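Cross-posting from the modeling subforum.

Setting up a comparison between two proteins and wanted a second pair of eyes on the formatting. Protein 1 (sequence, then structure tokens):
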Amino acid sequence: VYCVPSHDEASWSNRAAPLAERARNHERYHGWICYDVVRAIHHDCAGPAEIATAGVSMGAYHAVNIALRRADLFGYALGMSGN
């Protein structure tokens, strides 16, 4: 199990930043997950392994969004949200 920190305070939750900047910050976070975190997981597992994502609240959005955008990397997603 890998638990990565969120980046919402610098992206979608940062109401002081213009929307375009928040979107760029989210894309940098997305890239970090898809390249650095996935690479670290594959290294720890001695090769490619199926990865599932999960999250609660805003993390649910991230878990489902990244699995839909990168189904080649994330085969499963679990989003738990009251919304």
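Protein 2 (same layout):
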Amino acid sequence: IDINVPIGCGDVAVWPGDVVVGDKEGVVVIPAHLAEEIAAEAVEMTVFEDFVIEKVQQEGRSILGLYPPTDPQSAEDFKAWRQRKGR
């Protein structure tokens, strides 16, 4: 038995300090040096997905051009939504 040594788990190297995240769909290993960057990106993605869900469910907006935001108006709408919501 060892502590703080690299291991192999499901053919993936896991190093001390790495972040392991899992849900019902699977597990990912995030290298320690990328954890903050990935966490920040995940927060931004969650905010955008909340915006998309609101637009589709409450306003009946089509997902086309909204997710992914290929319509330039989607970016403007998201910016305004963020300001209104303080997010």
